[in-house]
C-alpha cells in the first residue's frame, strides 16, 4: 500500500463539516460539496460529488472476507453459469476436462479480481469515479455507461428468467393458476406479468436500502444456494445409482481437446468481464486487503471447483439416467416429482437469481446513473430509474431475439475488455497505485484528471483499436477459432496501446480521500 499525503491539512472541525449519509439525509448536494471543499482545501464540484460517489471512510467498513465470499457463492452458482458449464459437456468435454477448464478460468479470475479489488479498497471510490483516473472526469461517463447499459439489460432478462421459475412454483402449488398463463400481453402472459412485477418490486425494495442491505442479503443467500445445489447434485447422483458420465460424449482428444479446454477457461473469464471492471463498487467498503484475498480465494478457486463438481454430477448423472444432456439445473428442478421439494428448490433458485441480479446487474447501472446526474440522483432514486428501464425495455422480447443478445449485448460486452485494459494499465503500470483522490471530484482545468476538457484522448486512442479488434474476433466467422479469447485480445491490445502512448516519465501524486470521505454504510 502506498503512503498517502493529506491535502489542505484539514482540521478535525473542518472534517466534521462533512455530513454523514445517515445523520444528514436531507443535506443538499451543494452544501455537501462546500463542506467537502473546506475539508479538502480545494474546490469540490457538485457535478462530480455526492454521498454515493464520495470515497468511503476506512473506519467502519463492513465488507469482510465472508461478505466477499458470499458474493461469489451466489454469482458463481447462477443459472446462467450452470447453463454455460453444462454447455462444455455438450461440446464434448468430460468431467476432468470441465474441472480443468474451470480451474484455468478461476486462477485467472482470482488474480484479476484481486488487482481490481485492491483499487477499490485503497481509494474507496465506486467504478464510475475510478474510471475518471484514466478516462478523465468527463470521459469516465463512457466507461460507466457501457458497463451500466450491459447490466441494466441483463437485470431485466434475469428478472424475467426468475419469473419463469416463479410461475412453475405457483402453478405447482395452485394448479388453477395455469389458466392465467395462456394469454399474451406485450409478449407475456397475465401470470407472467404478475410474477415479473412481483420480483421487480422485491429487488427494488432491497436495493432502496443501499449497499449495506445488499451485503446482508448476499450473506443470507450464499449458504442457501450452496446447500440447495449440493442437495440437488446428491439427488441426481442417487437417481443415477452412483454412476456419472465421466468421459466426454464426443471423444475429443489431442489439440482439439486442449483448445476446447482453454476456450472454456477464457469464456469463463469473459463472463466475469463485467464484474472484474466494477468490483471496486464492493471492495470500496472492504475491511482490509486481506479480506479481499480471503474472500476471493474461497469464493473463486475453491467455490468454482465445488461448482464444477456439481456441474459434472448434474450433467453426467442426468446423462446416465436417460441419455439426455440438460441445458440448466432448472430442467432437473422441474422434474422433481414431490411438490414440496419442487417448491423448496424453486424458492432457492429465486433467492439465488435475486442475489445475482443485485450484485451483477443492479449496482453498476445505479452508480452509472448517479455519476451521470449527481445533483439529482442518489442511490435509491437511481435504483428506481434503473429498474424502470429494465421493465420498459420488455426484456423477455430481448431474450427471445438472438440478434439482440448476440449483436447488441455481445457488442457492448466486447468493449469491456478494452475498458479493463486501459483502467488497469493506467492504475498499476503508469501510476503504480498512486491516486490523488480529491482531484477526482474537481473541475479545475489544472486538476490531475481534467486532461483535455475533461477527457483523456490517450485513453480513447488506445480503446478504439482494441475495441475494433475485440469486436472483429467476436463476430467474424473466419475468426471463430479464437472468438472465445476476444476479451483477452481486447484487454491486452488496449493495455499495451495505452502504455505506449502515455507519458511514462510523469510523476503522480498519492493523496488520501479521507478528508472528503463519508461512512461506508450509505
UniProtKB/TrEMBL annotation:
Keyword Transmembrane helix in record: yes
Gene Ontology MF annotations:
nucleobase transmembrane transporter activity
The answer on whether this UniProt entry bears the keyword Membrane reads yes
Spell out the Pfam families in the cross-references. Answer: Transp_cyt_pur (PF02133)
- Cellular component GO terms, alphabetically? plasma membrane
Give the UniProt subcellular location, in the record's own words.
Membrane
Instruction: Kindly state which keywords UniProt assigns to this record, in alphabetical order.
Output: Membrane, Transmembrane, Transmembrane helix
Q: What is this protein called?
A: Nucleobase:cation symporter-1, NCS1 family
